[in-house]
Predict the structure.
Amino acid sequence: MAQDKTIMLPIFLSLLLSASDALVQDFCVGDLSAADTPAGYPCKKVSAVTCDDFVFTGLGKAGNTSNIIKAAVTPAFVGQFPAVNGLGISAARLDLAPGGVVPLHTHPGGSELLVVVQGTICAGFISSANAVYFTTLYKGDTMVFPQGQLHFQINSGNDNAVAIVSFSSPNPGLQITSFALFANSLPSAVVEKVTFLDDEQVKKLKKVLGGTG
């Protein structure tokens, strides 16, 4: 038996090292011409990768806040910044005009860390136990929103507010509760049942947000 163990040990070590070599690589810049998968995009050929692949300049410019929520999110997710493919990180810029709000929403694919760089932002989240955590953030303040939790950001000042956001996923996903309920074709009668709102309120919100039914 001791001899069998002696024989098996080098084989085991060889297999372990081979598996490690297969899993370890410096980077995997996403090939966006291919289909996305749960594991991310296939890697762009290393011979085609340049320094420019690792640089994203889009967060230096303010987003357009001329919309119903007076807010803009400029993402640096894998779709815009393929170098984050497989790295478990991404970023975005949040612009909030006075009165601007990012309504209750969730990122099913990752946790969020927000850093205020300008203005004042009221932000918070609601846990799965319906506990509420919210506060007012000022320049330099940071808040984290755990993965999958409903959260929001509101410009609570009189000037434009800006934040830089990072995520624990290259593609954290987004679902805004208000749009999920009132910006689609789900019949009003169903929405009324699941929200306890009356017909007039539901149809008003559908009209505002572009829903039908």
